[in-house]
Amino acid sequence: MTMQKVKIAVVGCGMISDAYLTTMMEKFKILEVAGCCDINEERARTQAQKYGIRALTMDQILADKNIEIVVNLTTPIAHYPVIKQLLLAGKNVYTEKVLAVELDHAAELASIATNNGLYLGAAPDTFLGAAAQTARSIVESGLIGQVTSCTASLSRDGAIFGQPGNFTTQPGGGIGFDVGIYYITALLSILGPITSVSGITKTLVPHRIASTFDHWGTPFEIRCENLMAATMQFAQGTVGTALFDANSIFILPEQPSVILFGTLGAVYLADPNSFGGDVKVILKGNNQPMVMQQSHAFNGECRGLGVAEMAWSLRMNRPHRASKEMAFHALDVLHGIVKSSQTGFAQSISSSFAIPAPLPKGYHGQGAFEFIEEIALAL
Question: Sorting pLDDT into bands at 50, 70 and 90, what band is 379?
């Protein structure tokens, strides 16, 4: 299949930009990276030189009619103004999570995109990876029967991440909104929308002293949650629990867990923060876990997979999978947990979304990536 490339630009040249730029430039032939931009012009020039692309200003990106998708990799608190500016300039946007920090801002962005016929998508796109797609296929096959409950948890020592100036100390960068959203999105992609939540969020020891070499001894404040626990009612009947704790003893490896319990068995997902990993099944009458053959492509590092899928969708004139509707619903769920903690009452979740179509099965080997891309993303 011969398809015109989609020209894209990157806004935000922080740490995560390396993973995105490497993957988008090396693995997805549908994408053509035109350049990158950052509020720190020197950082943009450094990344541009490293990847052989142009260092652009925001005005240049906005004015270039050939740039069809802009990938927003700024910090969460910058998402709303940056994405709004891009959408109003007629750009399709794919953003790192979350869609916006505030729910009303996210709703406004979604409305602008809809009213202007633009694509707006958001990470995490790890649910498009081999592991989550394989787990979904197992559930939909009926192998574990009716899914009655599920659980998602992550325990980490967040001290190494929560340091002065780090976005993980600011609203939108807490353990729930920055990391728990991977787990919530994985569950949503398999089980569908959530109708109500109840939960507790806490910021334990908000005033701290930096412990890393570059900031040693500097006092700082954590202004976001570092503990989140919740119960969730899914529209299709499943009841779930979530626990995200950044005050644990685990640095690396972390302790992720996502399990779907059914009437005939259970599925143990891989780390939702990754695209691949083992998916295990335990069936009724046999307590020995079986590592399942992965049924889908994209088992390695694929940051930018959601961008490529959006680009293919743009060319094929179809809805894209890492949609603003699912991203908004995930944010709605997280805000519902926060509000439940504040009020002491369960919260109804009014938003919804359609579960995105699964990627086609097959092509899970280590063959030519371009062939995998055309089969798995063009359909």
Answer: low
